[in-house]
Every structure is written in C-alpha cells, then in structure tokens.
Amino acid sequence: MSGHTFHRAPVRVYWELTRACDLACRHCRANAERQPAPDELDTIACERVIHDLASAGPPMPHVVFTGGDPFRRPDLRRLVRYAVARGLGVSVAPSATPEVTPETVRALRDAGVAAMSLSVDGATPARHDGLRGVLGCFGWTLVAAQRIVEAGIPLQVNTLVAAETAADLEEIAALVGRLGAARWSLFFLVATGRGRLLRALAPREAELTLRWLAGRAPAWPFTATTTEAPHFRRVVIERMRAAGATGAAIARTATARGFGIRDGNGIMFVAANGDVTPSGFLPLVVGNVRDASALALYREHPRFRALRAPDGFHGRCGVCRFRSVCGGSRARAYAGTGDYLASEPYCIYRPPKR
C-alpha cells in the first residue's frame, strides 16, 4: 500500500492563479468571473508558495497553473520561469480564447512549460460552444491546439463526461487524435460549482463508459486517463487479469500510471485567494498559504492524512481490494453525501464478503 500513498509531497499541485475568465462554462468548478477578484495572491506571494513547494526536494511536485484563465495573469510567464528555475515541473491550462497567440505560446515554451491543456467538450461547434457558453470557442480551441502542438509543447485535451456529452465521446476521441494531443483526460462530472446544473451519468452508465475507454485506449495514438474516476484503475486491472497479465506486470502498470493518486493523496489545490483544499472539486479548506506552509498543510492536516488512509474510508470503499490504487472519488463522495470518506457513488463494484 505504501507505494500508492504520497505522504512526503503532492505529486501535482493544481493552482488557480485567478478566477477571471472570458468564458461562461456550464460546468465551471470555479464559478469564474469576468474580472480578477481583489483578494488574489500577488506575484510575491505566489513566489513564496513556489519556494515552499520546491523545498520538498526531489521528486518535485508538478504545478498546474489553472483558473479561471491563467492567461489573465500578467505575471504568468514570470511565475512559470520562477517555478522551473527551482526544479518544479509546470503545466498551464488556459481557456481557449484569442489570447492564446503564437507569441504567448512560444513565450511559455521558452519559459520552460512542460505541457499545456485545453478543453474539448463536443466534436462540433454547436455541442462544444453550448457547454462553454461563448459562440466561437470551438474554433478558438482548434486554433490554440494547433499553436501549442506546433510550438512543440505536449498537449492534453480535457473532456467533461456527463449525460450531455457521453454520446459524443467516440467522435471527440477521433478529434483528439487529429489535434495531435499527447493525452486525453476524461473528467467525470462532480456536482460542484456550476456543474450542479448538469446531469451526471448513472453509475451503470459510468461503468460502461470506463469499460469502453479501457477497451478503446490501447489503439489510440495518445494516452487516455480519467479525472475524478479513479475506479477506472480497477477496470484496467480487471481487464489485464482477464487477459492473463502477471501480478508483476499489473504492479508496473500501477506504478507507471500513478495509481493511488486522488483528492488529497498526491493532489493538492491552491485557490486564487490562497485557500488550500485536497482538490479543486473537494472544497474543504484546510488553511491558507498567506499564513501557513502549503507543504506542511498537505503533510500534516488531519483531513489530508485521512484522505491518504483508505483503510479508514467508510462503506464499500474502506474494504474494497482496490482501495489503495483507487479509493474512489472523494470529491464525489462529499458532493453526494457530505462525507468525504464515504463510498464512491459512481462505482458499481461490490467487494467480496470477508
């Protein structure tokens, strides 16, 4: 179990540099606004947090600058350079707007950015723009993707999985391939922020989608992953076992693909105002980086400790044989029950009785 528990430092830090954004996405976690909030961390405060995270030593956390739209921060390139100079890997997740110019993309590349991500929630303009809330966003996304790939920056495409998008996934997968993306991450809806207005898949539908993904992914020219659906790992392991894979091969896959990482275990979120939570979709504030070390909060706060101890999860998740590599979406458990240690509502797996 220790190989799937990340006590020392987060693997990925999702950092909401700003909530300012020109889009109006129907599933926005951040409830983004047009203008920056007055309580956003300033540049010096951000650099202090970066210095704190770098004190973890190798292997260093990887920081994902997100938002809102991080391109609305005039100091974005400075922060990328500052973090890279201190040994942190950095990715940037901008909104697809005309601000993603060839010049800004090349500037981020030259600053040392390791990857960039864009969201594609439909295979046609009508479907995508209907979720993004701005006419023309689909076209901007395709142009931005081309500029990122042409600059030599690995591109990740993020796609919402909900009742409104599920029928479009096969076509979106084909589009992801045409865009030249290195990774496709399917985000299974958590009812938080504006996402409460959309319809999540039923548990059986979610299971069938995960099985479809596991079956189709080996043929794609990009890596497929999930966000807030860690039980995809159970589906992958079951498929490997059915194909005759050895325990050693399964263990190598689990290690290589970061099995075990989930809200609070390898993941930490820093909000625009400095609040720290176990993830952007699990809004349980444990402190603020203005007056506490982000690294210390991750290591020592009781909520983070509980999230790294799957034996203490409640219900089926606490006794499941896959609890160390999966553990369920803690954010969805909290959104559905108010208990962040409760069973994963999406998962239909029933652990054998002891």
Key features?
globular, TIM Barrel, 354 residues, 13 helices, alpha/beta, eleven-stranded mixed sheet
Question: How would you sum up this structure, described in words?
Answer:
- With 354 residues, the protein is an alpha/beta fold.
- The chain has one domain: TIM Barrel (Alpha-Beta Barrel).
- Helix content is 36%, strand content 14%.
- Strands 1, 2, 3, 4, 5, 6, 7, 8, 9, 10 and 11 form an 11-stranded mixed sheet that branches.
- The longest helix is centred in the middle third of the chain and has 14 residues, at 137-150.
- It starts with 11 loop residues before the first strand and ends in a 17-residue tail after the last helix.
Précis, in short:
36% of the residues lie in helices and 14% in strands. By secondary structure, the protein is an alpha/beta fold. The radius of gyration is 19 Å and the shape is globular.
At CATH's second level, what is the architecture? Answer: Alpha-Beta Barrel
Tell me the Rg in angstroms: 19 Å
CATH level 3 topology: TIM Barrel
Mean pLDDT: 93
Number of structural units classed as domains: 1
The fraction of residues assigned to DSSP E strands is 5-15%
What is the number of helical segments per DSSP (H or I, 4+ residues)?
Answer: 13
Q: Helices and strands, in N-to-C order?
A: EHEHEHEHHEHEHEHHEEEEHHHH
Strand segment count: 11
